[in-house]
Amino acid sequence: MSEEHTHNANINAPLLQREEQGGGSALAVDAACSGNPGPMEYRGVHLPSGGQLFHYGPIWGTNNIGEFLAIVHALALIKQNGWDMKVYSDSYNAILWVGKRQCKTKLERNEKTAKAYELIARAERWLRENPQHAPVLKWETAEWGEVPADFGRK
Predict the structure, then answer these.
(1) 3 state SS of 115
(2) Which of 50, 74, 97, 150 could tie 87 with a disulfide, CB 3.0–4.6 Å?
């Protein structure tokens, strides 16, 4: 399994004036996992433009881990660039984990999951060191449809 990480932080152009469902200047994140556990990837999409800002994976993990890592990746990117944005996720569990600054996964630790646990430790450390960060909000799928970062594999 080859791991891919892309980062397109090229959105310094003026934001589109239209408001998207879920709202304006924000990033939407999502994860996908083939099996649970299995090959997992996540990404972040800029809501006003629809452009993908980052993609990571696949690595061996779970969907909930991917959702958690996607939120923290978005928060770190927002802080690093000084953007005034919020983050939307459709994962209630991941949002709770971010609030507690701890990924409460039960994923077995082994060679396959080592990269996921390395990223989890890094994300948890970032959350502890950055208690003030952009707002993380629940994407209301029933009202707004699939989160724009959805991988479309349901």
Answers:
(1) helix
(2) 74
pLDDT digits 0-9 by tens, 70-113: 999 999 999 999 999 999 999 999 999 999 999 999 999 999 99
CATH code reported for the domain at 4-144: 3.30.420.10
Asked whether residue 5 carries a pLDDT value surpassing 80, the answer given is no
C-alpha 125/C-alpha 147 separation (Å) is: 27
Q: Which ranges of 5-140 does DSSP label H, i.e. alpha helix? A: 63-81, 92-100, 114-129
Tokens coding 33:
């996992």
pLDDT at 153: 75
Q: How far apart are CA 137 and CA 95, in angstroms?
A: 8
How far lies 6's CA from each of 44, 58, 135, in Å? 10, 12, 24
CA distances from 62 to 23, 35, 98, 108, 146 (A): 28, 8, 16, 11, 20
User: Cβ–Cβ contacts within 10 Å for residue 143, how many?
Assistant: 8
Q: Which residue has the tokens 């980062």?
A: 7
Higher pLDDT, 10 or 130: 130
This prediction has a pTM of: 0.86
